[in-house]
Structures are given as structure tokens and as C-alpha cells.
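Final report, section 2: Outcomes. Of the targets proposed, Asp23/Gls24 family envelope stress response protein is the one most frequently requested by collaborating groups, and we therefore present its record in full.
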Amino acid sequence: MTSSTTTAPSATQSATTTGSNVATRGDSALVSSTGRTTIADTVVSKIAGIATRELQGVHAVGGGASRAIGALRERIPGASVNHSQGVSVEVGERQAAVDIDIVADYGVSIADLAVGIRRNVIAAVERMTGLDVTEVNITVHDVYLDEGGDDEQAPAQTARVQ
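The predicted structure is given below as C-alpha cells.
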């Protein structure tokens, strides 16, 4: 991960840092006078992905291409599930921003689902990392319709064609 240096502290940084260079908010464990803790992007994306999948109404996480690659990956014996699939993050020293792509189940309120995802992701990331989550952007790529198995539709299509 590359780090960038800013010349002027942001309003958040100046409001949360005291003269002894120890943060006064919940992120004091990350940057202090005794050292610095760096959290990798993959850690935050994995936490956000797991927190998203915990909610009822989320059928899948990721857009079409990432879900296709994930499906291929799951077929490999011994391969683990990619919990950060469909999640991209930007992580700074004290803050993180999260973008999540999902497929929602048909019938759920997408607005309520988005509120629940934001609440769950912010709580999990802030609790586990100490980072302040500035935003959680959600893109709904599709709605999943549970139309039953293909076995039920095949006889109807065959009978119609005959």
C-alpha cells in the first residue's frame, strides 16, 4: 500500500489530535507517540464483505464479473472463499471509505437493505480496526428472483413445444 503525505492536516485530524500527538478519539490505538499501526486494504475489505453477507436480503456480493470469477474459484478443490469479493476500499491512517456491489433478493426494500448494510459495515470496521468509516457506497447490480429449479420449468417448456 502506498502512503501519501499531506502538508496541512484535515479538519478531522486537527480535531482529533492533541499536542502530544496522541489521538483523543477511538483511533488512538492506531497513531500515537509510541508508534503507528497500519491496516491493509484487504483487511478492511474482508471485514466489510463479511459484514455485508450477514444481512438477510443480500443474495450475493459483487458485480457480474467478480461473481463469475468467484464461482470459478469455489470449484477449485481446497480454495477458500474470497470474502472481499465485490468490495473495494480506500484506507488512510485514520479513515476508510468502502464501496460495495451487491445483488439483492427480490421483495426486500433496497433502501432499507442499504441502510442495514451501511450500519453493519460501519460498526464492524470501526470496532475491529479503529478506523473512522467516512462513507459506504452501495451499488445494486441485480435483483435475484428465486424461480425454483430448472427441473420444474423443463417439462412445461417441453409440453409447450410439443
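The domain at 39-146 is CATH 3.30.300 (GMP Synthetase; Chain A, domain 3).
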